[in-house]
User: What shape does this take?
Amino acid sequence: MTSTVPTTQQELQRQPESAGAAAVPPPDGQRSVRRRLARRWARVQESGEAGMSTAEYAVGTVAACAFAAVLYQVVTGGSVVDALGDLVQSALSTLS
Assistant: This one.
C-alpha cells in the first residue's frame, strides 16, 4: 500500500472508503483541523522556498569556519605580524 501526500484541499477532505462500507464523516473538531491543515498546506505550496534548510546552514557554517581558519593562519603568519608591527611603530613615531 502506497501513501501519497495530498496536494489539494479536496484531496485533504476526501475520506477513504474501506471494504465497500460507507465512510463515516469526521467529527466537527476534526473537520476544522483538516481545514486549517489544508489552508496551511496551500500557503506553504504558494510561498515557495523562503530561506535556507538545515543542510544549507550546515554547509554555510563549515564554509565560514574554513574561511576563519585560513584568515587566522594568514594573520598569525610571520610576515603579517611583522608588517603590523612596522605599521604600529610608524604610527607611534609620527606622534612623537
